[in-house]
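Worked Example 4.2. Consider the chain below.
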Amino acid sequence: MLDIARRTAFGAVLLLLMPAAVWLSGWLWTPGENSAVLRALFWVTETVSKPWGILTTMLLCAWFLWCLRFRLKPAIGLLLILSVTLLAGQFVKDYIKGEVREPRPYVAWLGTSHEMDVSAFYAQKSKLRAEQVKTLLGDNVQIPHWLNKSWQNDTGYAFPSGHTMFAASWALLGIGLLWRRKHYKTVTFLMVWAVTVMGSRLMLGMHWPRDLMASVGISWILVTLACWLTERYIGPLTPPPAENQEIAQRE
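Applying the procedure from the previous section yields the following structure tokens:
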């Protein structure tokens, strides 16, 4: 358990570096960034959003199963642990959002730039919030049409970030479950992807740096528990002798 916690904690610290640096710099989101860059970041964030997030989950589950080479029964157990971990993260996220009720950066901006009552905005149903965003930004050239549509589809609270929790959980699961098998390329890809997703949430006006940091912390707790359960009840995370030759070739 301690070894797993150390590995996942190291990964969590790496994930925290970017939002912590942004927070300490005092950077605040404002509209008008390069549209091409924002568009690229939007497609990155879409890998976590519905419905594409479901496809991402299926692909990553299949890849983790292939990397770990568990037999059928342990593989089913692993899928169950992965699913429960991701669902638990989203449940915790929804509960905290309802308690904290922190406005998103773009909503706070609408409150100041368009004299919108933020409290009244969040007192409405989600459909009415979307209509209000559409009305207020109907002819605003600073906001691309696709970003306007994205905001209309995501008018909830900010703290913590569900997108970050999803991506960070997969990155930390990679460190916790695949590092001993020396799947370094997979772990590196997942870490870079997670940090890019986190950056997209900042640049698209959806989250504050503290939202991302809290999400990474929650993900670390859930993933550490998931990896421990996997090693205790599903199978060892160290590679069996049969895989040593393959690992040597991969290195």
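The mean pLDDT is 87. The radius of gyration is 20 Å. Compare this with Example 4.1 before moving on.
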